[in-house]
Design brief:
Strand content: 15-25%
Largest sheet: 7 strands, antiparallel
Structural class: alpha+beta
Order of helices and strands: HHHEEHEEEEHEEHEEEHEEEEH
Helix content: 25-40%
Distance between the termini: 60 Å
């Protein structure tokens, strides 16, 4: 039987196409692997940049608190305070309040909590024995209070710092001071460029005192948020979280251990793919669900959760921009 030339030609064409496809298959597989590696590297680069920035911010917050605690410790070595000399203590403390805008007031208390000296109230008129910062200081430790929203003429967000004092007669006391948070709030906010990035700071009670929704009178309770829970437990990480509107956000967080705070940086994942990162990271409203940002198909996980080791200087990083394939991969669950 004679074969049809047309059928023979069709078979030859199919054979050639099959040979060509087999020849290009390794190239396709290699290209796919390269794209996957680039996407993984892009995600890791973004995560590393965000974590470095948020840890630096946490370090700056700790530096603010520890620097002012050092001021109190230096004052405890003066003759007037060690001698509990009420007549001259205020003369030493008043110039500090007048020249340092961070301090609102400083007072000296005895071991039973009664004030020996204060710039705003008479001696033995205020007792702070039930305050946690006083109890820490009288036990020989540095005390850092939770954030307070003061009303009236001050109308400011403050914390109280306290340090132990050993008087010349061997008895113990506490030197404490109210510290305004206006300067540290400005310092941290100044390094966040643009409107696509939010900075939030939460105190050890889970109350947000810096960031959207918090003002001089309002300290929103954020204890239910996963980044707050983990941050207060001493962890730093990057997670994905959905806000109330269903938008997906990349959230990086780190603890400021000396202050007892958690610093959170958030932005939409849609803008995290290509951005100028002189920033912190990440915009978020009220996340309702979260997950670790990882790549289960890769040996190198994007998520690294570790104890924070913040540095005292806010870092800046270069521009980070990844291609469409990498940007799309940010949303992979």
């Amino acid at each position: 039987m004679v074969r049809s030339p047309t059928r023979t030609l069709a078979r030859e064409r199919l054979r050639v196409i099959a040979v060509i496809a087999l020849a290009f298959l390794p190239l396709v597989l290699i290209e796919t692997a390269i794209i996957g590696q680039q996407a993984q590297a892009g995600r890791e680069s973004i995560e590393a940049g965000r974590l470095a920035l948020v840890r630096s911010a946490a370090g700056a917050a700790d530096g603010f608190v520890t620097g002012n605690i050092a001021t109190l410790h230096a004052l405890t070595q003066t003759r007037s305070i060690r001698g509990a000399d009420v007549a001259t203590v205020n003369a030493i403390l008043r110039p500090i309040i007048q020249n340092d805008p961070n301090w609102l007031t400083i007072g000296l208390s005895t071991a039973d909590g009664w004030n020996l000296s204060s710039l705003t109230t008479a001696a033995h008129s205020v007792n702070i024995a039930d305050r946690d910062y006083f109890q820490a200081a009288i036990a020989g430790k540095d005390g850092v209070g939770s954030v307070l929203a003061t009303r009236g003429s001050l109308r400011a967000k403050t914390i109280v710092l306290a340090v132990p004092v050993v008087f010349d007669d061997g008895t113990r006391g506490v030197l404490s001071g109210g510290l305004s948070l206006a300067n540290i709030e400005k310092q941290l906010n100044d390094v966040v460029p643009g409107t696509a990035i939010d900075l939030r700071v939460i105190d050890r009670l889970g109350h947000q005192f810096i960031g959207p929704g918090s003002d001089a009178d309002t300290l929103p309770d954020q204890n239910a948020l996963p980044e707050v829970k983990q941050g207060l437990a001493g962890l730093s990480s990057a997670i994905l979280s959905n806000d109330a509107a269903g938008g997906e956000n990349l959230i990086a967080f780190a603890p400021a251990t000396q202050a007892g705070w958690v610093v959170v940086l958030s932005e939409p994942t849609s803008s995290a793919g290509c951005s100028s990162v002189r920033s912190f990271a990440s915009r978020s409203s009220v996340p309702r669900s979260s997950r670790r940002w990882d790549s289960r198909k890769s040996r190198s996980s994007v998520v690294r959760t570790a104890r924070s080791t913040p540095t005292p200087v806010i870092a800046q990083s270069s521009n980070t921009c990844i291609g469409p394939a990498s940007r799309a991969s940010l949303g992979n669950r």
